[in-house]
Request: fold
Amino acid sequence: MLTKRQISILDAIIEEYTQTAEPIGSVLISKKKNLKISPATVRQEMNYLEKENFLFQPFTSAGRIPTTKAWRYFINNLMTDEDIETAEQRFIDEAFDFIDTEKKFFGELTKRLARITKDFSASFINDTDEFLFAGLEELFAQPELNKEENILAAAEIIDQFSDTLKQMPLETKILIGTDVFLGDKDEFSLMLEPFEFRTRRGIFALFGPTRMNYGRNKALLNFIKEKFEII
Reply:
């Protein structure tokens, strides 16, 4: 079991890595205002977290990055919905101008989710068997997609995306790394959020690097679902 200090350090590392995609060092974490821990103590705790497979050092003298185990711990124990910026709310709201044309409406929502999250975004409407997607440019601009092996893995996953969504139960899920259809790659995650829109039922999906901003993504999906409820 992790101590409160170890949890705080892990949370800080995940927050920084989500923003930078770069290995995180002890000096940076020690400067976090809410921690008040010396670099030496942070290094000691990071060594323990690495030993317990929460962190990974990609090469000698580098900082650490979160492992799949760390992301799962974060999602199950630490993740909270983040506040959505007013500009982002307006950007989503503008999609509702197309609400009278269902395909255009969901296409706009899907495209706007991709623009905000920088992840590959998809929506599947069960009743019509309609599959819409956006965000290929955003996804392949992520630093994780600089590696050829990750490009090929992401392309393979996207190629089977529509068939996979059709088989998914309409349940909230966050799949990480090797979960379900993500093969043997740890670099990617998939967020699924079911919705009801008038008489329709379906699911939104966000696919991207494991360091995707889960809290912000979850808040965006909840924001859309709440708007559906008042239509």
